[in-house]
Amino acid sequence: MNFIENIREGLRAIRSNLLRTVLTGLIISIGIMSLVGILTAVDGIKHSLDQTFSSLGANAFDIERKGNNNRGNRQGRAEKVYPEITYEQATQYKDLLSDKANVSLSAYISGATVVKSATDKTNPNINIIAGDEHYLLGKSLELEQGRSFSNYELEFGANVAIIGSEIKKNLFPKTNPIGEYISFLGRRFKIVGMLETKGSSMGGNAGDRSIIIPLETGRQIPRTGNSQLSFEIKTIISKPEELDYVMGEATGIMRNVRQDPLGQAESFEIQRSDSLLESLNEISGYLKIGGFVIGFITLLGASVGLMNIMMVSVNERTREIGVRKALGATAFQIRQQFLIEAIVICLLGGFVGVMLGILMGNGIASLIGDGGFIVPWLWVIVGLTICVVVGVISGSYPAYKASKLDPIEALRYE
User: Where is the ABC3 transporter permease C-terminal domain (predicted)?
Assistant: First the structure.
């Protein structure tokens, strides 16, 4: 009963000094809001990027020409330039690995392209990509309307196109684009499908500004100058646990296809898609550490403020402490009352801080990408636990000081 009575007494003391309680709780809530808000923002951003990278998954890898990323010179030495992966090499690789995986071939045809409809045209910011029957699967793209390419269209290079949502918005804002015609790169294409909106996170908006045409059609479009198409090869397997085995086999097949001499380095690069996710997890880990440190420093300042206010509370209630001791309250009970009061104040501020932190974190994450509203229960529990710890630490010395007051001197206190 003494413990329950101390809780009631602590709540009565809080109600009797409501303004001071609110101000003290705000100090704690700001600290918790900083901690939970930053960590929620990191989780929200990571969740959004995870969704964006989910198209890459843990069951796919890419093959491209070595040196295709234009790293430039290394330590003053020019990096060897390897020939582009040709269409014949890409299709040969696809045929040899077709029994173990789905192989998607694609080529970047043009960027900064102007696309015209019968009545309007886009800004010169449209990407034209040629892809095969597995391209949508490899990129985890879904159709919102229409259909994918037929075997006939893929084989003979028909002038058909799948457009991104932004093109529909610009050229056909009030009509269904399926069956309509658009023109670009000197050709007229019939729209057979429209992709779902990907949003603005990590290049998703560029996907909304893209047009996909059959791979054979892309090969037929004349190139400016002597430039040659470079083909991107994405291999998607059904069982992620077989990824290392299939990558090893793919390396052997591609060396043979590219005729790389024995004992020399490959003229191509194989990159696991999940390596991007691993890099993302590493970066988000550092961000969480930084966010936790910033939030901890803020809470440290809040705990000092709380201790100062609790010391003031002890001085103001010296006569009350003397009366309680005169009526038989022990030092332990006095200490317990002030500790409970400090913890309750911290928890009240903590609940407010957690709610504000979740809203702030999701608000920041929504600026990066649309990953949905998340509630980080782990950080909620951590935040409230820290509140209890801060309450105990900040209230310990004032509680100890209150319990050591001499009842006679306390009753004389003015």
Answer: 293-407
